[in-house]
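Annotated sample (chain length 96).
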Amino acid sequence: MFLLALQLGRTVAELEQTLTHNELMEWRVIFEDTHFGELRADRRNAEVLAMLYNINRAPNKPAITSDVYMPYKVKKRDLTDEQLKAKSRAFFSSLQ
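Output written by the structure step:
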């Protein structure tokens, strides 16, 4: 929620008051597809660093992936879609 607030230039409290459950789920899908914000910038930099390493490596050295240069990796979420929906419904209903 904090990344979305930062991206939109709003506070978390403002989002909690105005964001619907469906809109939050749509933002989640967009984030999983694009990784906007600093995570996207980290990935872009890691791609460049991996490319530079790979074009300058010794012929007998294996190529590396950009994951080596990521400061942290995004973990896949542990919740199913249904669990996430239930959790967000509970969160939004607690605000009323």
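Annotation: Residues 2-94 form one domain.
Annotation: The chain has a mean pLDDT of 83.
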